[in-house]
Known about the structure:
Helix content is 36%, strand content 27%. The chain is an alpha+beta fold. It has a three-stranded mixed sheet. It is globular, with a radius of gyration of 12 Å. The chain starts with a helix and ends with a strand.
Amino acid sequence: MTDRLEALLAAAFPGDEVSVEDRTGGGDHFQVTVASPRFEGLSLVEQHRLVYDALAGPLADGTIHELRITTRGAR
């Protein structure tokens, strides 16, 4: 499942740093980290909304039970 989520994030944030960690090993609790210049000047809520939008499918179908997000502008 982490590969699928990483692929969705990579498509939404091409060339940016993305990582997905299965926090519990059960395939439904994830820690997502995205570093992108797209986040510059955006509030934390706006940054997280971009990540939620990228993962809309797995969020809607219940694949993701819990999602923790860390975002930052690219360095």
